[in-house]
Design brief:
With 171 residues, this protein is mainly beta. It has 4 helices and 12 strands. A 7-stranded antiparallel sheet has the order 3-2-6-9-10-5-4. Strands 1-11-12 form a 3-stranded antiparallel sheet, with no helix packed on it. Strand 2 and strand 3 form a beta hairpin. The longest helix has 8 residues. The radius of gyration is 16 Å and the shape is globular. Bound molecules: flavin mononucleotide. Flavin mononucleotide (FMN) binds next to strand 3, strand 5 and helix 3.
């Protein structure tokens, strides 16, 4: 039996939001060609050998069905000058294709949309999907990485807001 928590989901969200994160734009494509695009800050690396990363998706997302069935996924670690992409990909009511209409992209491996001009990109095949509460944890076997040297700092998210770091990125 699970005890009732002594806090509500707003408090839980506020406390978790005290942890500053980077911001990623995730794109995915299924074998049938369905495309998803959404903003994600629940990204983390998992394993070095083999290279694996994960992110979490709420089951209420309209991208959910496409993501759990995806053949290929690309994770774009956004820079400070890509806040518009993060805001667009976080817009409810737009399909993946509609979200992509506003940004510069090209087809990557197996047709997964790759956002041009992104400093750091990981792409690969979807691995396990683990259901936990009202989210799923999606694991990715990374087989492509792309790094474009830049001194533009990463976009950050902190206490429910985008944060633009003022200092340049370290070399
Ligand atoms: C900074 C930021 C981080 C987000 N991180 C996540 C996340 O990790 N998982 C998730 O399911 N939704 C996350 N979201 C919400 C989704 O981006 C948003 O629900 C979605 O893009 C809206 O389109 P949908 O119809 O595909 O859900 C985040 C939103 C923002 C602004």
């Amino acid at each position: 039996m699970t005890a009732e928590p002594l806090f509500d989901s707003t408090q839980f969200r506020q406390v978790c939001g005290h942890f500053p994160t980077g911001v990623t734009a995730v794109t995915a494509v299924t074998a049938q060609g369905n495309v998803a695009a959404l903003t994600v800050n629940s990204f983390t690396s998992v394993s070095l050998r083999p290279a694996k990363v994960l992110f979490c998706v709420t089951s209420s997302s309209s991208s959910f069905a496409t993501l759990v069935a995806a053949e290929r996924i690309a994770i774009h670690i956004l820079s400070r000058d890509q806040e518009d992409v993060a805001r667009r990909f976080a817009t409810s009511g737009l399909t993946g294709t509609e979200k992509l209409a506003g940004v510069s992209w090209a087809p990557g491996p197996d047709g997964v949309p790759v956002l041009t001009g992104t400093p750091a990109i990981l792409a690969g095949r979807r691995d396990h999907v683990i259901t936990s509460g009202d989210h799923v944890i999606i694991l990715l076997d990374v087989d492509h990485v792309h790094l474009k040297p830049t001194n533009v700092p990463a976009l950050s998210f902190y206490r429910g807001q985008f944060v633009n770091p003022s200092s340049a990125a370290p070399d």
